[in-house]
Amino acid sequence: MENRFRPEDPDLRKKFAKLYREFFDLAERKRRWSLNDDIPWSQVNRSMNPAVADIVESFCAVELYLPDYIGKALPMIRANRGWAWFHANWGYEESKHSLALGDWLLRSGQRTEEQMADLEDRLFQHEWNLPHDSPSAMVMYGMVQELATWASYRNLRLRVQEHGGDPALSQALMFLAVDERAHHSFYLRAVQLFLEIDRAGALEQLRRVFSSFAMPAVHLIGESRRREEQIRSLGVLTETLYMEQVVYPILEILGVERRELRKKVVPVRC
What we know:
Elements: H1 10-31, H2 50-63, H3 66-77, H4 81-107, H5 113-123, H6 135-162, H7 167-197, H8 199-212, H9 224-233, H10 239-254
Helix pairs in contact: 1-4, 1-7, 2-4, 3-4, 4-7, 6-7, 6-8, 6-10, 7-8
């Protein structure tokens, strides 16, 4: 089925180029933000609940695998400029997310420079690998993952407000959530293209992506089970929230009935 969605296909190249240009122009016009100038770092809350800081650190750690995310996927799609250019732009924006989360951990006093350096050292002992060997399946994975990340940042922002508030972290999480939603929208439109080209083939890939989905790299971070439990217990991303805020909305927008996937979608492994 993958040959129906070949990145080098002339028609697909043309359509991805249009998708990327629309994504890029909108980002330049409405969505770009400055790490130093647009976040009120002077209003950081140095008394934030440590559980919130642990979750921020977990998300920051996931972002630190960016070289793997970029380096392993880009060769699959290099023949399609719009597809590859989006991936490069995605990497730029995700690097800002990592910097924003790391800066908050330091400015809030929740972590020291030494602790952050130790985290990086431990993370880089492991390597993240692609969960799928198909470019189109990776687009579907990205569609799900980006919306799950949007939901996580949105829900974490609500928890921050409930734990005394933090204008700096809240603003950063808002920027990150908006970016993630934009990434999701690009992937969603690409999946709609795949459904138009070969609905049966796209549905089969979509079923496999949903049935095996897990947030990227969390299992590679130290104390992963404790971190996953924190994310669930604080109501940032639970199995129920994953289905209600990620799976069902995606299926509705794509016009896909759950019965079309033929097998039950399993809950997310955070």
